[in-house]
Write a structure and sequence with these properties.
The structure is a homodimer. The first copy, chain A, has about 450 residues and is mainly α. The first copy, chain A, has 21 helices and 6 strands. Chains A and B meet through helix 11, helix 12, helix 14, helix 15 and helix 16 of A and helix 11, helix 12, helix 14, helix 15 and helix 16 of B.
């Protein structure tokens, strides 16, 4: 059954006000789909549906609602009921919801939440955006030295319902320093009386609360982990980041890079839900920058118009287009290589040599084709076509050098390499390629 | 300890030929790091290190080696020993390794592998690239109706070491159709005598062997799954795809899209390991296409050179640059929105209206700035500056329309939307913006 069908049937049940049937239908669905359905409801229907939800899944469903819908529902059910939801949600989901609210409302909502949950939420709200702390959750399974495998398993069974994941257990010393990790798989096959410190792994990986979330994502990917323990500055364990949150991080980071590489300010909201004015504001900065910098190209053409005969000025778009694309090919590979930790600024010389060889192959092929087009299609003289082709070769080599080196330089200077992508590279290459063309044009004039 | 230090110490131990110390050191490391270290070794040292590896982790370490290193090691240890590794590896890892080898070598290697593993591997080798079947593994935990929670747990403990994941169990009927899934968490807290068909979930999600791997990735992300069951065309369960494999899929798909969007043929190999000729071949197709299509722009300029006075021809780079970037902004958002399932071709009208409003805001801002620059910086007449600004406004609107609609059209026609990115959009917009400029230029001439 696809989502449209599901929505039609649930709409009908909601219309009928048949509580029993609706409860039965909900039992067949998972919380993600229920939340997706509730995202389509408004006003009275939204409230009616919320009232039908079994209490034990309402907090879970609430965490999967869209931001707007969460706030709409909050206004419908009032602050006391919202408080209860916040108390029942996993800390990381509660934080995601609260982050968007004004500070005084957060304070009121947290007033009725039990103290431990409130303390956790407050601590989490203070971690900087995109840090490991900001995406972790406090509900992990902790154990202390001395307990046997059998007792650990018994305790685990008791606590399982409240934990975000039970598939990796964390062993802490009395000062709450992490001393080992224990996959549930290994606990299951261990002898009953084995003390857990004998079966745990001490060679675990961990991250700090202030580490970038991309670093955590890299750990999960590299070591195929289900969760990463997060420790504070004193090495005490404070939370875990689970693999499912990492999937979202990897996607968001890729989207951000793609946006930056295409002359857009990165945005976290979905395109279809963003207002036109906001979309325009994300697009204007680069466009304005490029327009202002095109004063340079216009000046060059103005100044050298005497030597730019029609043969030369007609090929400016081709030269600039090829140059811009050659450069953005190289910068794309460098930026993505840096993002995936496949290259680092230390590899600059290696990259430069490789790009040199690539650009000679590519440039030579393009120059030959260019010469053919200029003489055969447009009937330019051999001298003109030769000058244009030579300008083409130089432009490609220069574009690939600039394109591959700027991202590495940005990384070295601790700037974001993705900013050195097409928009900036193209602008730079435009100016350079024009100068090269003018040089060759005036030498044959 | 970072990787450089780790490598130095292991190098020293390998040099010393101290078997005991090396074994001890390896016990402190995980297989990913051991494989990363072995990736740096050559010839005799690689073989020496392999001989030191404990037998029970050698297959695991082998799966994490780079492709080249796997083949190098295979030549060093011979086909019989490689056969043993293939027999011990998880099916999906074995398939990844074998895929790169010639067919007759695969046959020889599989000759010594036990029959079940061989059958599985052969079946897997036949799934098309990028299908769910090609990334799944056959080692999942299956149970049949009638067994109690207690017995299931007992059986699980026995089989745990051989399974890729034990955290979701799959319940099959006698015809091997999947009838339910059971998270280990729920099994742990169930009463001992509960039959598993009473505690399993029947509202599970699954995919088919021929579904695209991106579809599986979307399921994992949307429903926060640890693994997805894969069924064949008759609905019989044949494997699972685990979340850690999905992380790689999401990254690879993002990389592919980024490459396609920047005039590159997508490539699966790391930049730094790819030969210059191969890199050049990935870059030439789009560059050649764009050069050939620039015959159009050159023809237009050639033909209308009379009305393109210096005021107009000098602003061609600015006009094309702004048009190209405006278009690629819109196509980027459309392509990414399609990839993340946030928009679909059905939303075409909604997108068109949104882009219309955005492009009027952006176009108006740019036109005003453009008019200012043309009159104040370059001293063009009001008539010239007005015509250029009007051309600018039309170009932005047209570029955003083309940029947002072509990816949706591609999706509708079941083509890859990422192909409708910067390179193609820019080429189209270049021609259109030139025609617009010529139109305005000749109207004021």
């Amino acid at each position: 059954m696809d989502f449209e069908q599901l929505k039609d049937r649930l709409d009908a049940l909601l219309e009928k006000e048949s509580l029993g049937e609706m409860r039965g239908a909900l039992m067949m669905l998972n919380v993600v789909d229920i939340a997706a359905y509730m995202d389509t409801l408004e006003g009275e229907n939204l409230l009616k549906m919320y009232r039908i939800l079994p209490k034990d899944i309402s907090a879970d469903v609430f965490s999967y609602l869209s931001e707007d819908q969460q706030q709409r529902l909050m206004r419908l059910i009032g602050e006391t009921e919202t408080s209860r939801l916040v108390g029942d949600m996993y800390v990381d989901d509660a934080v995601d919801f609260l982050e968007e609210l004004p500070a005084n409302l957060i304070r009121r909502l947290l007033r009725n939440v039990d103290e431990e949950q409130r303390k956790n939420i407050n601590a989490f709200l203070e971690y900087p955006e995109n840090s490991a702390g900001s995406i972790m959750t406090a509900e992990f399974c902790e154990f202390h030295e001395g307990i046997t495998a059998k007792d650990a398993l018994k305790e685990l069974k008791k606590n399982a319902p409240d934990k975000e994941t039970i598939y990796t257990l964390y062993v802490l010393d009395p000062q709450r320093h992490l001393i080992g990790t224990l996959p549930l798989r290994r606990l299951l096959i261990a002898p009953d009386e084995a003390p857990i410190e004998k079966i745990m792994t001490t060679g675990f990986v961990s991250a700090r609360t202030l580490d970038d979330r991309e670093y955590v994502a890299e750990l999960v990917r590299k070591y195929d982990l289900l969760s990463v323990p997060i420790v504070d500055n004193e090495g005490r364990m404070v939370g875990i980041v689970t693999a499912d949150d990492i999937l979202d991080v990897i996607r968001q980071e890729a989207t951000e890079d793609i946006e930056k590489m295409n002359a857009l300010l990165p945005s976290e909201s979905e395109y279809i839900k963003t207002r036109p004015v906001k979309l325009a504001m994300n697009r204007l900065p680069w466009l304005l920058f490029m327009m202002v910098s095109s004063i340079l190209t216009e000046t060059i053409i103005d100044k050298f118009s005497a030597s730019l005969t029609i043969a030369f000025s007609a090929c400016i778009p081709m030269l600039m287009g090829t140059g811009g694309n050659s450069g953005s090919q190289s910068s794309t590979l460098a930026i993505r290589g840096l993002a995936l930790n496949e290259i680092s600024p230390k590899d600059a010389l290696k990259v430069l040599l490789k790009e040199a060889r690539v650009s000679i192959i590519v440039g030579a092929a393009l120059s030959v084709l260019c010469f053919g087009i200029q003489t055969l299609v447009f009937g330019r003289t051999v001298l003109e076509a030769g000058a244009i082709s030579a300008a083409m070769l130089c432009t490609v080599i220069l574009a690939k050098t600039i394109g591959s080196m700027l991202p590495l330089l940005a990384k070295k200077l601790k700037l974001d390499p993705a900013l050195m992508a097409a928009p900036l590279i193209t602008t730079l290459v435009d100016v350079c390629s024009l100068l090269i063309l003018v040089l060759f044009a005036s030498s044959v004039a």
